[in-house]
Automatic annotation (TrEMBL):
EC class name: transferase
Keyword entries, A-Z: Multifunctional enzyme
Domain Reverse transcriptase/retrotransposon-derived protein RNase H-like: start-end pairs: 75-133
Matches recorded under PANTHER family: PROTEIN CBG26694, PROTEIN NYNRIN-LIKE
Keyword rRNA processing applies: no
Coiled-coil ranges per UniProt: none
EC assignment: 2.7.7.49
Example of a GO MF term: RNA-directed DNA polymerase activity
Lineage: Eukaryota, Metazoa, Ecdysozoa, Nematoda, Enoplea
Protein name: RNA-directed DNA polymerase
InterPro entries, per the entry: DNA/RNA_pol_sf (IPR043502), Retrovirus_Pol_polyprotein (IPR050951), Rev_trsase/Diguanyl_cyclase (IPR043128), RT_RNaseH_2 (IPR041577)
Length: 165
């Protein structure tokens, strides 16, 4: 019987799900984009694995700015930093644990002027020992840029929006 399976770029084991190292290995040699098309190609790959990257929208934000219609191409330190950080995060080996439906779920939400976010997590059992309550294992990470239409909302209204997202 197989102990793992690789499916659509994901490495699935009884312990959890992670990225397929053969698929993400090409990221190590990915050259710095020189045009908007190159940024979109990189973001396409990175977005496919966004569930493994905490605060993906915030990290990728400087790259997304370059893809806006009418935006002037200007690759600077912010874009280089975002590109390098995303590359490093994509090649790291993060395993997301499978849900245990006998343990309660925790939903943490947050909002700022530029993004809303939520993390669905559980405090998992480690044998007979409980993991410290302040440590959570991310199951699903969600973070998206706030559209300019809701940028004028008060922060409390944005937090309510995250609860309904």
């Amino acid at each position: 019987m197989k102990k793992h399976v690789v499916y659509l770029g994901h490495f699935i084991t009884p312990e959890g799900i992670g990225t397929d190292s053969q698929k993400t290995a090409a990221v190590r040699q990915w050259r710095t984009p020189r045009c908007v098309r190159g940024v979109r190609q990189f973001l396409g790959l990175a977005s496919y694995y966004r569930r493994y990257i905490n605060d993906f929208a915030r990290v990728a934000g400087p790259l997304h700015e370059l893809t806006r219609k009418g935006e002037k191409w200007q690759w600077g330190p912010r874009q280089e930093g975002a590109f390098t950080t995303l590359k490093n995060l994509l090649v790291s080996t993060l395993i997301l644990e499978h849900s245990d439906f006998s343990i309660p779920f925790v939903l943490d939400v947050d909002a700022s002027d530029t993004a809303i976010g939520a993390v669905l997590s559980q405090t998992m059992k480690n044998g007979n020992q409980l993991v410290i309550a302040s440590l959570y294992y991310p199951l699903v990470c969600f973070l998206c840029h706030i559209y300019s239409s809701i940028n004028s909302y008060h922060i409390y209204c944005v937090l309510l929006l995250t609860r309904n997202a």
